[in-house]
What does this fold into?
Amino acid sequence: MENDQERVDEQQTFDDELVEPVDEENQYSSSDAEESTDSEAAKEIAKGFIVDENEEEEEEEEEVKEKRKKKKKKSKKRRRESSEDLSEDELDLIEENTGVKIARSEQKFKRLKRGVRKPSKDVKNIFDEDEEEEVLEENEEDFVVYDDGEGFIEGETHAPTLFEEVFHDLEDKYSFAFQKIEEPPDFNIESLEKVFSPEAYLTRKDKEIKVTDLPERFQLRPDIVVNRKLTKEEINLATEIITKSIADYHGILVSSQLSRAVKNVLTSFSQEFIEVPYIWTYKRDLIANYDEDPVTPTLTRADLWYILDHEYDFRKFVEMRDKLNSEISKNHSQDHYISKVLSEAKEIDELYDLSVYIKFQEKKETISVQQISPTEELRRKGMVSKNLKYLEYIHKGLIKIVDKFGVQIPSFVQSLNSETKLHQPVNENLTPLEVVQQFYPESKAPDELLKQSMELLAYEMSVDPMFRKFVRNNYIQNGLLVTSGPLEVISSNNECWSYCFWKIPIQKAFNIDGDFARIIHYKNQNLINISFQLRNEEKFLEILKNNIVSETPRRFDLETAPISSSHVEWNKYRIDAALKAYNEILRPNIESWLIAKLKANAEQWIMEQCMFNLERKIDVKPFRTSEMRRNAIPRVFALSFGAGGLENDTCCVYINEHGKKTQEWSWPMLKDFNSREGNEFLDALEEFNPHVVVVRCYDFKTKFLLQTVKNFVRYHNEKLKSQSEKATVIVSDDKVAMEYTASEIAKKEYPKSSELSRYCTSLARMVQNPLMEHLRLGDKILAIKFHPLQSFLPEEKFKEALDRAFVNVVNEVGVDINDILHDEFNEPKQRALHYICGFGPRKSIYLKQLIFGENYKPYYEPFIESRSSLKDTYLEPKVFQNSAGFLRIRPDPNEPLDDSRIHPDFYDLARKYSRNTPDMDDARSSQKYFLMQLIKRENRNPFSDRRRDYEMPTVDQVFEMVTKETKDSLYPGLIVPVVVKTITTGALRVRLKNSGFECNIGWNYIDKKVNNNIEEGDILDALVKSINKEDFTIVLSCKPRDLEKGHHRSFHDKRFDEFIDREAKHNYQPPLKVKKVNQSVPQPKPKPPRTITHPCFEKVSAQEAEEKLSTQPNGFYIIRPKTNNPDKLSITWKIYDNVYRHFVDIIEIGLEPGLEVGRRLFVENEQKTEYEALDELLVTYIEDTNDFIDKMINHQRFRPTERQLDEYLETCLRNNPKYTAYGFYMDNANPGCFIYGYKFKPGARMSKMRGMFRPYGLRVEEFRFHNLDELINGMKQKIYERYTRKR
It folds into this structure.
């Protein structure tokens, strides 16, 4: 999956090297529905702006417009009256699709009812985005200049009636969206969900997803036909591929049992369209191994997700194969070789190879007959090609010489895969040089033409799909992953050493879990190099040579048929072509492919671990003592003083058994039983009698509060007679609480509470229901660390891993559908419905819309009486099949089984055994073992909580939570760095440098020779002598004799010992530290300017480049050596007339000997985007940006200079004084930037905002726009928002 982009780039190598940059409206725009919405909004907003002459309505159309306007108002009024709510889920979804932040009501309502709306002119957060702000080269603060020449000032009035005139129509048309909902007294009101319909904000794709009868998560997979059923033949092929893949992933052998299980799962996914939870709950018998006793599943639930991912990859393979087959049937039906390769393809890599081959064959035919050279054609179109020189070779006609080499590439590749030699090249009587002279008698450099012909043959071999497959397979079977020693001087305890000097078979490299992600990390940090070798390289090269040459005469035929010089020379060039095809063209590509495959494999493993770790945290029952009822929820006290210190009081909150905060206390000090605070705490314990008391602070100071609270609770418990009433003191993990505390979610839920109070509230709720508290965070959960390697995952993969954990656990627990409908403002409950099998955010919202209906009544509380009513009225068949068994119908359902995990499909079977215990031997023989287990369990105890019991944290776990130190990072005998915090007469107060935990070092553990020289802030080495984890005390020593006995932490991993290349490690020479060169030492002579082979490269200075480009059209560029460092590359780019941008630097990574350009490229300070080739940088960065520049320059509101734009705006305003005029001009002082200027009234000073051209579109301040129309509409709304806010 990760290689798709690389393969697409490669596929396009000959697809159309001259393709113009993609139009930004297609490449960057959102869905059609979004464009439609934006267009409608733009029309409304534009009412207050100058309309171009060709857009103005004629005089006689005014009457028609007025009628339409009235009709539209009536339509909107009707839509508002009958429309449905926007819930928090809907608002989140709208924001996700539009990138626009929707203003939320700050009030929290328990129930919804339409109330009185009052007009509000406050438009909030219209263009808020989560994108990082791009920093300009100069400070842009206060750059915006308003009509009076100064920025808006709070409290100052600016033309109070101006915007009533400018935006008179906007406020009228959109007043329904800007109005706040007031809460009338004594009765509940309707939420924002029912104020206006969300349909206008949903994309066309969203609308399709919510009504299509397929699981939502299946529909979100791009680039495939989601409702296409795979055929039996396709499932058989997918089974073969995926079974091998999953066996390799786990390091096991392929078996018939494994293959059968994989096939059954694939059939369920691809023909029945059922999700992982359904298979795991109701179809586990299809993946069970009945040859074992007891019966066990062959696959785990994680394996089901793995198969789902690869089923998606296989679908992409099938659709690409069908597309290629259609193209081949149309254009290459007579080419049997192409048809053969297609029929044998089993992997998507083979299809990409075939696609490249087909495009090359087509290119050969067109270029050889065209009049102008490829170079000239590219220059005319302002484009580049990765393989320009080969196109030039073909245009020269060198293909005629290539044919004379006599190499039949398909036969050559067939020979490589055969034990006998099948390929026999035909020799020419003339030598290679004579053949060149025959075709090009006037050439002064026939040797160069011969070399170019050999290179063209090498390239033809490199694009052959079967040759690529042969080389790729050899790397998989015989390749070695090799890592170097450190490229920089690093400390001996640096973790990087664990990944140095590796020489590991590639097949084993796929089974090193997620550690390859670390290798990639250190490679990107330039600490190590990665390379690949072949164990059979000599044999492999010999095979290439033997099969590419023509056979020499046998020894007894030499007298009659001596070897001619032409025979030897032709073979020499054939060998050179084969070696070049492998070493210089294919090898780098295959090594990049291997890195991508290994990286994807590591990410798959990390995703699984993140999923497992979140599951372990949320698949937990509420805290319960042995005396509590089976389904009881505990009463909880939670105490904290945050970061500690005199400024922080001790906060205590009480959460009752319904999860509600009913009481809160705050005490300056909590120590003495007889103090006022102590008495209040004891009274609270006696009054509310909590089952559990949670203690946690922001840092290690938890230990102080913990001991105090334990003393109070012990005193309280001693007075109680019943064991069941006694409270338990625990320390809880606070990762969720820390994220919740300052979040918007918490502020909305408890707007008047302090952060410390919210922190305690979250701690308490975590003990009551870990699942719901994690769900409460929403996307904030991404900030929590679930695995040490999660930072190496792309965010979308990390989020998907966590979502899968929620899907697994939420479906295990089930969702009470009526509870969801009656508790609309409980966000965790509403979010839980998203994760039900078959559902997602869109389908959850749609279901609630259908149930509530359009005619909403204030006190209407819908009730679903049965699962059958869901099926008959609200859910489509496939969604119902997926979800029915996980939706609880409570209380008192018409059908008792509706409040069980038993699916309606198995009700008859369940009723059969409702009174009799099923015979498990019969179940085994009928291969329904797991299904009958489920029925047996649910008949006895429907929807019993199957989560793990809440486990009291161990002493080690509490110590780790409080100190942030693990058993590997802190133990006796380890030398650790400490920072001196304070110096007292009794001891040094220090903190552990790595974790911040504070402790004391007595003067008796410090060398007397140095104790007088110690100052605050010094870093010392200290030996850990002992640890008391119950009391959180650590004994440290800085005495030399103690330090001699200790050791520093080692990151050596014994797992990797077998991978170490001992010889390489022995011969390793550490790099020398760079020393500052004395000025008196003569400096080395400067290197000659850099030279590369590229049609746009010229060895010129920046000024000379500007002179050359002055006669060229806008958008042209020259690659040149950097002025102050000729060994590096720069680019001079003509933005506009007399406006040139000089790239500060092109950063090159992996510039190895023999390469003209580095393997990885970055543009100056914009190092977020990586390019794999110079041509990719030129096309992706410059060509795409040129397109946006051209569109702005050609826009009728563009003027070349500030003065000309100011005059234009004045003219517009004189003709239309009630409107706002705007336009653009190029910012000559900042190449690559433009100015958006606007005026409210004639004679006012033009207000200005600077924007930037970027490959993805246009940017003004922190706002991104995908095209010019978006910028125009968005800026109108932004100006309106800013003005109304400042008013």
Remarks:
- The chain is about 45% helix and 10% strand.
- The longest helix spans residues 565-618.
- The chain has a mean pLDDT of 81.
